[in-house]
From TrEMBL:
It is found in: Cell membrane. The chain holds residues 486 to 805 of 868 of the full protein. This is P-type Cu(+) transporter. Belongs to the cation transport ATPase (P-type) (TC 3.A.3) family. Type IB subfamily. It comes from Halogranum rubrum.
Amino acid sequence: ATPAATMVGTAIGASHGILFKGGDVLERVRDVDTVIFDKTGTLTKGEMTLTDVRVLRPETDGSGVVSTDDTSEYEGDELTEEFLLDVAASAEAGSEHPIAEAVVEGARDRGIDVSDPAALQNVAGKGIRARTDHGDVLVGKPELLREYDVDPSPAEETMATLEREGKTAMLVARVPDDAETGRLLGVLAVADEVKSESQTAVSALRERGLTVMLVTGDNERTARAVAEQVGIDPENVRAGVLPEDKASVVEDIQSDGRRAMMVGDGVNDAPALAAAFVGTALGSGTDVAIEAADVTLMRDDPADVLRAINVSEGTLAKIK
Ligand code: ADP
Ligand code: MG
């Protein structure tokens, strides 16, 4: 494009809060044929709320076998919803993940006095392990518990039900100081509302002939429930993607010559934004994501993806 056309396109974009990092980006955007959305904070609001607290009592753990020894592992604490939430929140208080913030806020709302853990270990894409007043606590995915030899299977049904509702469910386990292995205490779920613009944004892109995909670290069931709400086909969902694998998922999608725009907001998304033909960050996203991106959508509106493509096409049409 001529410098004048680029200036006009850049200005029109800016008037909609769409920032292109240079004229070459403005030209590239119209060639995008696939749009890959991150889920949390991109298609959803990214403001999680605690919705469910489910205690797994020994007699209801699904095995049908009640062992009298089971209760001794609670060190005299009665396993109530409040206790479960207290244990989880005292671990999550050390994490800055949106899930963690929802758990801590949910606990405080229910009058629980939450204290910070003495130590915290983030297990990327899987959850946390923390040293708390209640002993060592695990909060996260089934894989996390398995890593520490805690069997997550008694919670399978409960998790599946919550996930089909589009919620993110997580397991809570405790390793008491005097015990070798941990014990599964229960399940928590958080929900994140889909942005009101997401569904229209997806259908407008699809009407234009673009392929729309979803990539997330969240589990398959939750991802599919959200995909269904916004109109993304199940075969275009890539779930359970670890932070370090998001970029290779983008590369894989592009390996057959597709030109993908990755749209994301988190630190997790930065390598994928860099790997994509066009990386698009949301203005409310982390600085790392914005730096890695070619385009920034200041209004955080997924519908601005199509607007960005329109601006790019319009700019190039004028110079022909
Ligand atoms: P996303 O790609 O959706 O932004 P992340 O990669 O940050 O997600 O996390 C992926 C999954 O790991 C979450 O859906 C959750 O199951 C689990 N997880 C991550 N951090 C935490 C945490 N602090 N507490 C509980 N679960 C967590
Ligand atoms: Mg995100």
